[in-house]
What we know:
Blueprint: H1 2-32, H2 56-112, H3 118-152, H4 154-180, H5 184-216, H6 218-223, H7 232-244, E1 252-253, E2 257-258, H8 261-283
Amino acid sequence: MCRKYTKLIFGYIFCHQSTFGAALLYSFYLIRFGNFDTSTWFLPFTMVVPFDTSSVEGWYWFWFIQFSASLSYIMCMVSVSSYFMCCCFYIEAICDRFGVIINSIRKSVKQNQIEKDKPKFLENRSKIRDQIHDAIDLHVNIFQIFKMVSNINSGTIFALLPVNAIFLGISMYSTENSVADMSPAFMLYNVLCIVSSVMWPYFFAHFATKITERVSSIGDVVYDSNWYDYPIEFRRYIVLIIARSHQEVNFTGFNLISCTLAGFGKIVRSSCSFYLLFRSFAQQ
């Protein structure tokens, strides 16, 4: 699963940075045919820099600055997103292991209920007790690790979601202008920016929602194991696991921003509001 998303992310990086490669190759093409007028060359960003970009040397320095800034942004987003996704995969794997232990306990109890040999019965009983202890320890670890991952990524979520909402609004406004100016290069890059500003929050919201629902459903896995048929000495532990599974779990940005698919929908709506705001400012 990690390899699948790694390939997807690096494919996006290649497409995103290829825009700068296309701009560089286009400049080489124009120079070959004697066109040294940098005003006819294109770059994805419109920026103000403290040097002359009308010269060839200045234009290439400008290209390098834009390329480096874009690559730094992409690599930063890849790093924080990959870390968050890997943490989610790890929690999911622990939940899978917990489900295996619960199923193993159910089978062991069922088998021991028909066991006639007393030494074997006592041996199986001790084995079941050890399995229940393992399930309890793993259950505690699941919630502790979830809380730790939530705290570590709280600042990232708080910064990522609002910033990308603003970035999406700016990209939508820039795309509208590039269509009006009939500039296909700028329009292509702005479309990539829209994809970028939507993709990162969606990754966070998707995996956060998926893992939150998975951890919240741990109690259902235990409840569906026919625990009420267990011996009384085991049943009380199972009841405690079910009761502790009702802890509220969620990913938030400093308890101010909810990282869920519903929250992602709010981000998209906020981006549309920012887009209309930028458009109204431009018309005044």
